[in-house]
Write a structure and sequence with these properties.
There is one protein chain. The chain is an alpha/beta fold. It contains 7 helices and 14 strands. A hairpin with a 3-residue loop joins strand 10 and strand 11. Helix 2 runs parallel beside helix 3. The radius of gyration is 20 Å and the shape is globular.
């Protein structure tokens, strides 16, 4: 083979490999997956509690496959729904999100909002996502109808935990909640929710969109049994043997998704520690609908009694 022929062959092979990887990444972004996780966090003798954790839906009206998959989650018959934000990616998405949630909005639920509930996504270089955070927040784009989303959810009975504390009884268990508005935008007001968690609650849950360490540290120190968050997309692009390349916050990549402890070195029962569940979420930016080794997900958390 001549040198020119070799160059052409290598170029063709590279094009085929790149095209195959792109096709895989596009397909994986639509491979919606239900995770099931058991968390030993309830008082001894308590009944199991089924909590559906939803995050980062990033809905646009044309995403019909995602909408159908979301509707099917009602068949899980959860006792509680926790939505950790970034539901929207389009100005017309609020009724689509509500329709996709279907009967789930009639289940006891709590929520916080994320940056992509507030502001429209914009076309950006996706490689910037992999660079260190320079603090830039795109709050100059058009606002999305987040007020409408909040009103629709609260009218159906879900509780808005944005910089708020509250309690809710589910299956005879008293649950004490604390939540913050989006830490990625700096909207969190920890001063409004700080202080010991409800001592009379059977379960204490902290809720945030983005799992920034300042928020996790505060909730753990205040005695919350578990913390639920999203935002990271599980890294969105993960490499074999390496894992996630970024978390899009100051959480370390090793805890970019799934169930862990916070602080990371703590064990169940350690004072000032909590379980941490980070959802990899269901969506992506509408301008870069790809995932690599990180399927979009929702999680059914089964909370069980501690040993």
């Amino acid at each position: 083979m001549t040198a020119l022929g070799l160059i052409r062959s290598l170029s063709l092979a590279g094009s085929l490999l790149g095209g195959g990887l792109t096709a895989y990444a596009l397909a994986e972004a639509r491979a919606y997956t239900l995770r099931r996780v058991t968390v030993p966090v309830l008082p001894p003798g308590s009944p199991d509690l089924r909590v559906l954790h939803l995050s980062d839906i990033h809905m646009t009206p044309g995403q019909t496959r995602k909408q159908a998959w979301l509707r099917g989650l009602a068949d899980l018959d959860p006792d509680l729904v926790v939505n950790t934000g970034d539901n929207l990616s389009h100005h017309a998405s609020v009724p689509v999100v509500l329709d996709s949630l279907g009967p789930l909005v009639d289940v006891p639920g709590v929520f916080v909002l994320g940056s992509n509930d507030y502001f429209s996504p914009t076309l950006r270089n996706p490689l910037r996502y992999l660079l260190p955070d320079d603090g830039t927040r795109h709050t100059d784009s058009a606002q999305l109808p987040w007020r409408d989303l909040r009103e629709q959810l609260t009218d159906r009975g879900w509780l808005d935990l944005s910089n708020a504390r509250t309690t809710l009884e589910v299956r005879g268990l008293r649950i004490g909640f604390a939540g913050v508005d989006d830490p990625h935008l700096g909207y969190d007001r920890l001063d409004l929710v700080a202080g010991p968690a409800d001592p009379d609650a059977d379960l204490r849950l902290g809720v945030a969109h983005a799992p920034y360490l300042r928020v996790l540290d505060r909730f753990a120190a205040d005695g919350y049994d578990a913390i639920l968050a999203g935002h990271t997309h599980g890294g969105q692009v993960c490499l074999p043997g390496i894992g996630a390349l970024t978390t899009n916050c100051d959480l370390e990549p090793e805890r970019v998704k799934g169930l862990h402890r916070h602080p990371a070195s703590s064990a169940p029962g350690d004072p000032g520690s909590a379980w941490l569940h980070v959802s990899a979420g269901l969506g992506t930016s509408p301008y870069a609908r790809i995932r690599v080794a990180c399927r979009p997900e929702a999680t059914l958390l089964t909370l069980v009694a501690r040993d």
